[in-house]
Amino acid sequence: MHYVSTRGGDEQADFRSVVLSGLAKNGGLYVPASLPVFTEKQISSWSWLPFDELVWRIISPFVGASLQENTLRTLLSDSYQAFRHRAITPLEQIGHNEWILQLFHGPTQSSKDFAAQLQARLVAHFLDEVGKQAWVVGATNGDTGLAALAAFEHCPTTRMAIVYPRNGLAPEQLAALLAADPQRVQLFAVDGNFDDCQTLVSRLLREWPLDDVIPVCFNSTNWIGVLAQIVFYFHAALQLGAGSRPVGFSVPAASSAEIYAGYIAQKMGLPINQVIISTNSNDALHQFFHRNRYCTQASNRTLSPSMDFSLYSNLERFIWEIYQHDGHATKALMEHFERYGELSIGNAQWLRARVLFDSYSVDESQVRDEVVELFRQTGSAIDPHTAVGVLAGRLHRRSLGAPMVTFGQIAPAKSAALLAELGVWPAGAAQAVEPGAQAAYLAKADLGGLCQALCAAQQRFV
């Protein structure tokens, strides 16, 4: 297995190089040059497998010769030891052929734990092999950064740089970030939104200032952010009879990695009949799939803050796929987007995308109503992000005969205040968190200031 850049060129990389990376050398994203494809019979035979064995069957072809089998099995098994449910990702039925895949039983109670826990173990292993240290860098609007913090806590060969919007985090999320170990973590608070933070991190990775230290991105620009989530689709579908009937999915658009992973899972042979991209009022992805127009836009603050942005990095990987691996076309489209903040794709490519994907935008009143109604009818409490997905899945599914699975990305407890207000969660006192790290403040386009602060932090940590 080898990897290439979405923006073309002759560069090829093995799995280890992809793990220990931020971006490809030409600024693109790493993608596998080819995909493993499984037969219906193979997939059906996996229905009895425990979760970590299923993960190994799906992930091992992407690893190739970079890891021995027993090493990879150990790293995969270790990645799920801190999860609180023995099924790892249990399915909950909420209606006729309607299900929620609970992805929030990890250490920080969000789906981000899957990629973070796996990435930390792979990075630590490969850094030991090459005898180097790394900065693990990325942008967060809450859950991604917290998952990375928890995962890399015991990785002595890494330091972390976390960029976040100064006024864009919930108080408890900010408190958790500031409680990080200041000897290992450097925080950067940006006077801008989450899109500004992602743009700043991408520029940093392209102009990395530390020659002797490897940059590793904890956002899903790193391939592990996608790879860990392909498993979600296989696991859910196998519990619902994959191989004998197709399955549909509704994915709250808190991450384009999960959406792109669904496309990859179908190409690998999984019988998926529909993926619904569920958005709140920040509907950039909905507009792309509904109208073939994708553009950056000002973000509204909503009840589902993990979706309050418009810059989706894995859209570049998806464009590369639907342009049939044409790196030159992908590069031209992405450079146009980076310059003008908008893009449209060819009509043939857009229609190809619509074969699998639908989209739906949910407003705030609908979210509140769905949380309350689901609790009244089933006794299940869901967070607002999941409510967006559940409602979109119910209203926009193509087939009542195919199971519809919504990704429950965030634990209801993380929205306890809102749910208590709506009467579906007991009121409770917030826990105080001791501050630790301090944030350096940056203007939203201050790449020079970010590089200088990072170099200074490197000297301090050394």
Could you name the key traits of this structure?
43% helix, Threonine synthase, 462 residues, Rossmann fold, lyase, EC 4.2.3.1
3D architecture notes:
There is one protein chain. This protein is an alpha/beta fold and 462 residues long. The chain has a domain at 88-104 and 227-421: Rossmann fold (3-Layer(aba) Sandwich), CATH 3.40.50.1100. The chain has 18 helices and 15 strands. It has helices spanning 15-19, 40-44, 51-63, 69-79, 112-130, 143-151, 171-178, 194-206, 224-239, 256-267, 284-291, 315-322, 327-340, 347-354, 364-378, 384-396, 416-421, 447-461, and strands spanning 3-5, 30-32, 91-95, 98-102, 134-139, 158-165, 185-191, 214-217, 247-252, 272-279, 294-295, 342-343, 357-361, 404-408, 439-443. Strands 3-4-14-9-10-13 form a six-stranded mixed β-sheet. Helix 3 packs across helix 9 (224-239) and helix 5 packs across helix 9. The protein is globular, with a radius of gyration of 21 Å.
Q: Can you lay out the helices and strands and say which pair or pack?
A:
Blueprint (H helix, E strand, L loop, with lengths): L2 E3 L9 H5 L10 E3 L7 H5 L6 H13 L5 H11 L11 E5 L2 E5 L9 H19 L3 E6 L3 H9 L6 E8 L5 H8 L6 E7 L2 H13 L7 E4 L6 H16 L7 E6 L3 H12 L4 E8 L4 H8 L2 E2 L19 H8 L4 H14 L1 E2 L3 H8 L2 E5 L2 H15 L5 H13 L7 E5 L7 H6 L17 E5 L3 H15 L1
Parallel strand pairs: 4-14, 5-6, 5-8, 6-7, 7-15, 9-10, 9-14, 10-13
Antiparallel strand pairs: 1-2, 3-4, 11-12
